[in-house]
Amino acid sequence: MTPNGIAQRLRLREDQIFLVLTILIAVISGLSAVLFTLAIQATKNSLFGLSPSAIRLIVTPTLVSLLTGYLLAKFFPEARGSGVPQTEAAFHLEEGRIRPIVPFGKFLTGVLCVGSGHSMGREGPSVQIGAGLASAIGQWFSLSPSRVQNLVPVGAAAALSAAFNTPVAAVIFALEEIIGDMNAALIGSTVLASVTAVIVERSILGDEVLFRVPAYQLVHPAELLAYAALGVIGGLISLVFSKGLLQLRQRFLSLPSSTAIFQPAIGGLIVGIILVFVPQVMSVGYEYVDQALNGGMLLQTMLVLCIVKLVATMISYASGNAGGIFAPSLYLGAMAGGAAGMLVHQFAPFPTAAPGAYALVGMGTLFAGIIRAPMTSVIMIFELTQDYQILVPLMIANMLSFVISRRFQPKPVYHALLEQNHIYIPDADTRLSKRAWRAKNIMTRDVSFIPDATSVQEAWRAFEETKSSVLLVGDWNQLVGIVTRKAVEQAMSSGRETDSVATLTTSDFEYLHGDQPLDVALERFGHNPGVVPVLSRTGHRKVEGVITLDTILKFIQKKRASAM
Amino acid sequence: MTCAHCTDKVVFRIIQRELVLLIVLGGLTVPLFFFTRSIAATNRAMNVEVAHTWYGRAQEQLKEGHTTLAIDFLRKAATNDHDNPQYTLALASALATANYTEEARQSLLRLRMSAPESGEINLSLARLAAKGGMMDEAVRYYHNALYGVWPTDQISTLRTSVRTELVGFLLSSGDTSRALSELLILSSDIPDNDQAHIQVGRSFLAAGDSQHALEQFKRALQLNSKSKEAYEGAGRASFALTDYATARRYLDAAIAGGDKTQATEDLLQTSRFVLSRDPLIPRLATSERVRRLEENLSFVSDQLDSCIGKKETDQSSLAVLVPLRQETARSIEEEFTPPKLREDAERFRIGMNLVYRIETAVNELCKEPSDLDRALVLIARKHGIVDQ
Q: Region A437-450: what's the mean pLDDT?
């Protein structure tokens, strides 16, 4: 047998293995999501009992967060927060590789954080656990990098399907949010995984529903205007939540790194105090969403819960605990929608549906505005109601919320959270420009660095040796900035030979990531004279190479030669 | 050169490793599945226990009248144990009491989806619809409850109770014809004891079917000859059937049996007045007829004078009352003298018609009618002389 024959046989073999693994991973991810849910519930019951005292409400989240803070800082730094952005980053930037310890760490810290009353959700962590297990299994089987990468959305879809009991929405979420491409070739395996996981979940938990969803009815066509108004309100709340969360998290991140262990406990203390006054915002809180959906809450109660939940979630998340914002966004939506529905019901000059209908649409609206997955939100609410009538109002409200949120906060919250950790997910254009020539293929790693302590005279010598017009200041792991020949020449002529080159270095320069296409590189040459550094998406100013006009010419010549 | 045997061996080893890994993974998945199931079962048992505790607490709060707190506890009970309809039913009932009607209805409708034939759920929905004034929906759910599933040992009692409730609802909604249909069925279904017959008899009375009511009370008296309620009911039924003599007998017995209510005493007094002041009773001596009519005319004449005295500034009232007084004065003097009455028996009817008209006007304009006032009106009605 020739080497090509062996490769072909193994490739065929890998296809079959992938199919079997998809089913096995779906079962395991589904089980992990069910276990995660049960563990959170059991932890919450044992930590708080039936009627916790005020002291217990304050002390429990504080002490538990102290423990999780230590675990997260020392062992599982990737397990902080939701887990969805980390999964996206692993899929796009690490070829789907996730450390096998991460799903276990996420399980443990997620159970502790959400179970100790933090106002966070369980779906995001479930996604990371499912995706992490899928990646670990793929690596265990020594699958090719592309196969390991493909298993990540499979695990994520399966876990979400089991955690939220909406298999179709889980598939759409995996495509829309994790892969970022609704036309992805992985649709078959994600559907298979999602269906398998939901079967597993129902075989264990039965047909229990998350919410008792009321029958939906569009009573009067003019109600569409009310739903449009709800979309605008939802967009604004999404905006407040996203911006508030990012700003608060940035504040926590700017604290000295030695405080990282204690930051979750600070969040725990504040949330504990909030719980004394408003215990309804504790943990996931789906029972209160259910109550709002069924018209069991007063207008004032819903308004208070909407505001307090928003604040509590921001604090829980920004302080570095492990838990998601999927469930809080639904909670906020139900409260805002229910309150809006009550006002419409009272003051509209036309007949209207019950406030529960607005709470339902509100859930989708906030999800679209915060998570920025409008298709998932529509399908998810449709799947919960199984009623076609809801589609038009839902789409109107969701789109308005999505547009408003995107207009004033262009970066989706998951991506913005990653960027606070110096991880940059490629945008849709970059991901989808498959035919374009990418920077990583064009760049050279033949890069000259000078340390920032270098004197102007030594820098001048380096320019003379390299004949370059720009030099990079710093090293491979930390690019400080760039210095131009012209700036050094001027400093020399003005007698500043002994000055540090740092005084001439500009840190405000254009750069590229490896997956960005050639046209972007050419565009950025307009800002940087002669050289554009190529930086890693996963490290702050970590250099992968540089692109010069010379490297571009050489690349084109090489392409031509290979085409001939 | 490639060694074919060697490459096959490499491929075989890779495949063998993958197979082993798959078997290991599959082997891990099965116990994980059963482990998760056992955890879920433990969790479920714990939730059921927690739900039971919350339910107990809710019942205590309900007993103390703290409905809002009870609702909160019942919500927790229902959340922890979705499968127990008792919690949802109790929650729906508490919600309805606290006027969270829509949520109560939604909860019950969902519960009904899993047990559409449940008598208890349909009854709760019926009560909710009745509370919301949704007549047709309420009747539909009451009927579903009537023909629904109930615990076998209490089925008859519970169905009777539901139909009694339905009758009560129909009567309070003013739908007497449907109430009567239900009552006729109910009267054949009830247990043969005095209390059941008394209850049905009262419902017949409320529906305006005094004859059936009297039958029920009579049966109750057969079963318990000392029942003051049955005597009182029979008295009322007889009174409604204008059999005032029988009514007086039953009402006397009721009071003698211990019924000291004002209503019963008033009814008895009215019956006595009807019997003692009716000049048109057959087989009555003419002199007695004359005496009764004169007595009645004298009474209403005094009533009329007193009423005019009260309304002397009210011109619209006087426009009605003054002509009546003139007519009365003239009639007493000219028409209703004893000789003239002896000559023409029809004058007694004309006289009672005048009495009726005066009573109607005075009762409308001046005062609440007394037992005697009511009795005089009833005498006129009994003899069909009200429209003359």
A: 85
Q: Two tokens at A543? A: 């250099």
What is the per-residue pLDDT across A307-354, written as a single tens digit (0 to 9) for each?
999 999 999 999 999 999 999 999 999 999 999 999 998 888 888 888
Give all strands of the β-sheet with A512-513 in edge-to-edge order.
Answer: A512-513, A531-535, A543-548
For B244-249, which contacts have Cβ atoms below 8 Å and span 24 or more sequence positions? B244/B271, B244/B274, B244/B275, B244/B378, B245/B271, B245/B275, B247/B271, B248/B272, B248/B275
Is residue A500 left, alpha or beta, with left meaning phi > 0 and alpha meaning psi from -120 to 50? Answer: beta
Flag whether residue B19 sits within 8 Å of chain A, measured between CB atoms: no
User: How far is Cα B292 from Cα B273, in angstroms, rounded to an integer?
Assistant: 11
Which residue from B10, B54, B103 is facing A295, i.e. has the nearest CB? Answer: B103
pLDDT at residue number B93: 87
Which residues in chain B touch residue A290, judged by CB atoms under 8 angstroms apart? 79
Average pLDDT estimate for A163-179: 92
How far, in Å, CA of A98 to CA of A140, rounded?
12
Contacts of B22 in chain A (CB under 8 A): 17, 20-21, 24
What is the SS3 assignment for A269-310?
HHHHHHHHHCHHHCCCCHHHHHHHHCCCCCHHHHHHHHHHHH
- Rounded to whole angstroms, the maximal C-alpha distance in chain B is 154
Instruction: Give me the DSSP letters along A83-111.
Output: SHHHHHHHHHHSTT---THHHHHHHHHHH
pLDDT at B281: 87
Q: Which residue from B313, B340, B309 is spatially nearest to B325, judged by alpha carbons?
A: B309
- Among the partner-chain residues B21, B50, B106, the one whose CB lies closest to the CB of A141 is B21
A253-275 residue pLDDT tens? 999 989 999 999 999 999 999 99
pLDDT per residue as tens digits for the range B66-84: 999 999 999 999 888 888 8
Measure in Å the smallest separation between the Cα of A168 and chain B Cα atoms. 23
pLDDT by residue (tens digit) across A514-548? 888 887 888 787 777 778 899 988 777 889 998 88
Residues of chain B with Cβ-Cβ distance to A354 below 8 Å are: 102
DSSP annotation of A214: P
Q: CB A42 to CB B43 under 8 A?
A: yes
Q: Pick the residue of B103, B109, B112, B128 with the most A CBs within 10 A to test the interface with A by mutation.
A: B103
Backbone angles phi, psi at B12, to 5 degrees: -60, -40
- Beta-sheet pairing, A512-513 with A531-535: parallel
Distance CA A440, CA A537 (A): 12
- pLDDT digits over A184-238, tens only? 678 899 999 999 999 999 999 987 778 878 777 788 899 999 999 999 999 999 9
CA distance A22 to A90: 18
Judge: A287–B26 Cβ closer than 8 Å, yes or no: no
CA distance B307 to B295: 18
What pLDDT digit, counting tens, does each position of B345-384 carry?
788 889 999 999 999 998 888 878 888 999 999 999 888 8
Q: Determine the Cα angle at A151 with ends A147 and A154, to 5°.
A: 145
pTM metric for this prediction: 0.73
CA terminus-to-terminus distance, chain B: 133
3-state secondary structure of A262: coil
The rounded distance, in Å, linking the Cα atoms of B197 and B45 is: 47
d(CA B295, CA B275): 14
Q: What is the mean pLDDT of chain A?
A: 90
| Residue A128: φ, ψ to 5° | -65, -40
Instruction: Tell if the CB–CB gap between A287 and B79 is shorter than 8 Å.
Output: yes
Q: CA–CA separation, A105 vs A108, rounded Å?
A: 5
pLDDT at A432 (0 to 100): 64
Per DSSP, what are the bridge partners of residue A512?
A534
User: How many angstroms separate the CA atoms of A336 and A322, rounded?
Assistant: 25
